[in-house]
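Memo to structure team: turn this sequence into structure tokens by end of day. - J.P.
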Amino acid sequence: MIVPVILAGGSGTRLWPLSRRMHPKQFLPLTGGENSMLQETIARLEGVECAPPIVICNEEHRFLVAEQLQQLGKRDATIALEPAGRNTAPAIAVAALKALQQDDDPVLLVLAADHVISQITPFHQAIECAVELAQTDQLVTFGIVPNAPETGYGYIRSGEVVDKGYQVAQFVEKPDQETAQDYLESGGYYWNSGMFCFRAAHYLDELSQYAPEMVQCCRQAVESGVDDLDFFRLAREPFLQSPSDSIDYAVMEKTNCAAMVALDAGWNDIGSWSALWEIDDKDDNGNAQKGDVLLFDTRDTLVHAESRLVTTVGVDNLVIIETKDAVLVADKNEAQHVKTLVNTLRQQQRPEDQFHRVVYRPWGHFDSIEEEGRFKVKRITVKPGGRTSVQMHHHRSEHWVVVSGTARVTKEGKSFLVTENESIYINVGESHSLENPGVLPLDLIEVQTGGYLGEDDIVRYDDLYGRED
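Reply from structure team:
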């Protein structure tokens, strides 16, 4: 049985301002379609006989993952929640232990949630070869056939031919430009994709040999973990005690069982805005654009407009990304340094590091339209069947005006139906909840007033989604 393991715990800081800590790139539709990168990762496995996937993600992203899997009809997936990131080796160990609870001898197909693979047939063929190698107790990685002297990737040097792949002769760190050119010309080097295939039990055996403490901590975290709604929560303390290490350093560079299957299928890890420009459709002047964009005398530029008209005149080789609350303008050749900018935002505790202006919740989402002093205005959308927690605020009152749909409002234990053009007022200290009992989205405007308007001024009494106060 092949068990897809989707690693969805990344932060995607190099794709700020679209990618934020609470809504990183793997949950965004970056490649032109409606599906997010996570959804594309799962959808491209159609035609491969697989068990339900195991998705490893952060607790903070659990509702995003659950909703996107439900949109694909993958309600039987396992969503394992990490209390904190411990890199790829422990995450895959957790997946191996969970897979062994369902099957005696599963083969794991480990994929990142934020990669692009444009050619499905050669990808499926490479999976078939990798599974055959995995069943002979090889730890298989996928080596990307390089098409440029890329300095942003680690490399794999291939060794002797084994079945439909190669023994791994060496893992190589990211090279300088001259060395990368030599690798490209030699023909024996491949980009390290970070995708793997192996028997779950064999991976744990090898990891036990080189990192026994890690396996012990992960085993305790799984055995003491608990099911919570649609999720499996790893036990916090044992998982936090696990060493943090990548699978490459923990196992692949040490084992004698490392093998590689070559993959030439239009792979890209979208590690920067320049990488996204490379795979996007372009006009005759080399410009890739999305949204309300008007270009004049512009070349080789990526423009993404989310909420307003963006225009350019007489520029070239730029990245211009506009969102509702931030704008990035960068030289395309320097786009990888966006991460440094995000670190500064984090040090300054700017909200633009964590959240978009539109913030998603399990019941729907809200857009903070205006905030100044003692008031804040939001547009709130509650999906059909969605319900906020029963809650109370110490420092603010709220006035709700229904724009479309019907709301069921519960205030101090009494329920009211509030329809279009009607409103209701929530005083400071009153318990309340908001529910959409209809089949269409509920839209309303919320005006908050008070001395403190932070999102942490919430005391939850009851929550449909199991969120802690």
